[in-house]
Design goal:
Organism: Celerinatantimonas diazotrophica
Number of helices: 3
Helix content: over 70%
Structural class: mainly alpha
Radius of gyration: 54 Å
Distance between the termini: 157 Å
Order of helices and strands: HHH
Protein name: LysB family phage lysis regulatory protein
Strand content: under 5%
Largest sheet: none
Shape: rod-shaped
Number of strands: 0
Number of domains: 2
């Protein structure tokens, strides 16, 4: 064979070896790329699940917030009603205190002797007759303190 043919075969063999070496490197790169793709697909699926879970959580939290807002509105209405009722009761209590003061002052007034004589013995209980007045009774002490 001729030298050119040997050199051509040798060059062709070197070229084939170089291409095979490059092809082996590319196959390794391709395998790594496939692994990366699989990893990225798994990550994408996990992120999609995480996103859907987060959306479900957000939806549940929004519903909880709405429920709590409704409860808050209801309680505010109850609070306003209770404050109104409390104001009415306070006003009623003030009226009762004034009435009580009037009754106390009225009950402390000494009944005139003429009225006692007019009523006679029919209104007295046993032991309450004017001629049998107990000495130092509580009513007398209060009445004498007012004089």
């Amino acid at each position: 064979m001729s030298k050119v043919a040997i050199w051509g075969c040798l060059g062709l063999a070197l070229f084939a070896a170089f291409q095979q070496w490059r092809l082996g490197g590319l196959q390794t790169d391709l395998r790594l790329a496939h692994k990366d793709i699989q990893t990225l697909m798994v990550n994408r699926d996990e992120l999609a699940q995480s996103l859907s879970s987060s959306e479900a959580n957000n939806h549940a939290l929004k519903q909880e917030i709405q429920r709590r807002e409704q409860i808050l509105l209801h309680r505010n209405k109850q609070l306003v009603a209770q404050r109104t009722h409390f104001a009415e009761l306070a006003e009623q209590l003030e009226g009762l205190k004034k009435t009580d003061e009037k009754v106390k002052s009225w009950s402390m007034v000494r009944v005139p002797d003429a009225v006692i004589r007019l009523l006679g013995t029919s209104t007295y209980r046993e032991g309450d007759r004017p001629n049998k007045v107990r000495k130092n009774s509580a009513a007398e002490r209060v009445h004498s303190a007012d004089r």
